[in-house]
Structure formats: C-alpha cells, structure tokens
Amino acid sequence: MKRLLLLSVLLGLVLVGCGNSQTADSSSTASGSKELTKVRVVLDWTPNTNHTGLYVAKAKGYYEKAGLDVEIVQPPEDGATPLVAGGGAEFGIDFQDSLAANFSSDNPLPVTAVAAVIQHNTSGLISLKEDGIDSPAKLAGQSYATWNLPIELAIVKKVVEDDGGDFSKVKLIPSTVTDVVSALQTKSVNAIWVYYGWDGIATEKAGLETNYLNFADYAKELDYYSPVIVGNNKYMKNNPEITKAFLDATRQGYEAAIADPDAAAQILVDAVPELDIEMVKASQQWLANQYKAEVTQWGYINPERWNTFYQWLNENDLVEKPIAENVGFTNEYLPK
Q1: Contact call for residues 71 and 41 (beta carbons, < 8 A)
Q2: 132 plus 115 within the same structural domain
Q3: What is the pLDDT along the chain (336 residues), one digit of tens a residue?
Q4: Alpha-carbon span 255 to 333, nearest angstrom
Q5: Same domain, yes or no, for 16 and 115?
Q6: Is the terminal CB of the chain with fewer CB neighbours within 10 Å at N or C?
Q7: Which of 252, 251, 260, 249 is nearest to 284 (CA)?
C-alpha cells in the first residue's frame, strides 16, 4: 500500500522511449563460452523476503542455466512500474492495489502482471494486544496511521463497518511508519497497516504481544495479489520465450526458498549484508507457506480473485474509470 503514494506520479508520467524494449540484448560470460541474454528486474522496495526467490535463482545459477544474465535493480523514487513501462527494466515488482490507477487510466502504462509472488494478500492491521483491537470494529476510538489514500481508507472502512464498527470514530493520524516496532512501543499510534511476513515478524522478534487482523480474512474482495511481477508489454510480446525462461527460473528460486527457508535466507543476506539474518530466517520460514499456499503452480493469478478486487473498486468509485474484467494480468508466460 505504501506504493500507492506513487500513483499520481505514475499516472502523470510520460516516459521517453516507453515500450522501446523490443528485442533482447545478449552478453557473453567471462569465459566467452556462452552468450547470456540480459534481463533487468526492478524491485518495489529495499530487498526483503518478498524478493528472495530472485536472489536464490541468481545465486543457484537457475537464470544462467536458462541463458539469462539477470540484474536485480533497486527501485527509483517513482517506483518499479514506470521504469518497466519505459524500457528501463524488463520486469519489476508491484502490487495489484497500486496498479489499479494505471489500469483505470485513459493512457495506461504498457505493463502486465505475469506472476503472483505471494498467493494471498498477507497485509492487515497490527496493534498491541493490550489495546484490545481483536476485531475490526474495535478500531473505533483508536488511532490508525494512515497514508490518506482513497483505496487504503476504503479498505479499512470496509472491514470496520462490515464488523459493525463506526469508521467515523477511528482517529486517523497521517503518518508513514518506517519502524513498526518503535511506533507501537511508543504509542504514537494504536494500529498500523503492515505486511505480516516482514513487519509482523519484526514484532514477534521484538517480543511484542499483538493482535493482527488480516484483511483477506474479513472480505473476499480484499484477497488481492500483493505483490506481483509485472513485465513490459512490448518486450514480452517480442520475446515470449525469454519471458517464459525468466519466470521458470524465478519459479525454481521461489520453490527452493519454500523447500529450504534457512538456506534461502542466507542467500538473501549474503547478497544484502545489512539485513539481519535471524529476522530474515524467521520471515523466510513464515513466507515459505505463503508463496504458493494451496496452489500447485507458482505464480498463478486466479482470474476470479483478480477481478473481484477490481470490481469492488469499480463499485465504490475508487478508480478513474471502471477496470474491465481480466485487464492487467496474464498467466500465459508461466511454466506449465
């Protein structure tokens, strides 16, 4: 949801060379024995366990075996999707809720979601257990750190009111919380929107006793895809086999992370030494059951769930214009 702060930039951005990523570039290995195709994937945020499969695929040579030289790129200030759309990277990480403004625009950026990194929405509201917010209705009378974004507030309002609470009594505190543990400990706010696989695990590691209200548990409309891999439309159309090879190698990376979370955590920390290994291990162990959850095919995007979320946005006038069914995603490049 933090990525929604970028929506106004994303919608207004006109990138020179948009979609010019038409054909793949090749590079030679150090030995010159094998040409690899250069592929860039830009993250949505600083490296974390949402991205582990990418680092595992690179470290274990899955990309190289597929003939790819994959560069993992840190995101610019305006986010991954504009960079992908403009040809600055072939693939990137984004979120279905953040992408809504693009797909409802008269001039959408030319990107499509091609894989779900995590099968279900694992975001929700976290608070200290002592505050008693053990159901959404009990957020009334308590303070919530808000980004003041329409979709964000509509989601919180829905779960509160569906549970019989009065959303007008929620104390909205404009704030971008960067340290959830400190914010809860200092009582600067009572409730914070988090992705449990990272910030929720951080509260566990800090020994905090919390209540966590996962949005997807309270409304089927809120079980959207978060995060997803997006690709440049023209690049994928012109390079379908490379796109499939990239996603297949990425699949292998995430499935290796599922099979051995601790080893995957070590690979991520080796690549990003500033991360805390114990925190990453705990997060990785939790996410191992979330990457695929109940599905057998990593990356699969369920059309019904994708459409249900956007239909809810349409019905509540949360997008510029209605998003049509099946707009913005495809499963055609996923390994069978």
Answers
A1: yes
A2: no
A3: 544 444 443 444 333 344 444 556 655 444 455 799 999 999 999 999 999 999 999 999 999 999 999 999 999 988 999 999 999 999 999 999 999 999 999 999 999 999 999 999 999 999 999 999 999 999 999 999 999 999 999 999 999 999 999 999 999 999 889 999 999 999 999 999 999 999 999 999 999 999 999 999 999 999 999 999 999 999 999 999 999 999 999 999 999 999 999 999 999 999 999 999 999 999 999 999 999 999 999 999 999 999 999 999 999 999 999 999 999 999 999 988
A4: 17
A5: yes
A6: C
A7: 260
Q: At what angle do helices 261-271 and 240-259 cross, to 10 degrees?
A: 120
Q: What predicted TM-score, i.e. pTM, was given to this entire model?
A: 0.91
CA dihedral 112, 117, 122, 125 (to 10 degrees): -60
Q: What are residue 191's phi and psi, to 5 degrees?
A: -135, 145
What angle do helix axes 261-271 and 52-59 make, rounded to 10 degrees?
80
- Residues 81 and 6 placed together within one structural domain of the fold: yes
Residue 321 lies in a domain: no
Whichever domain contains 213, its CATH number is 3.40.190.10
Q: Where among 195, 222, 249 does a domain terminate?
A: 222
Total domain count, the chain: 2
Q: Find out whether the peptide bond into 227 is cis, omega within 30 degrees of 0.
A: yes
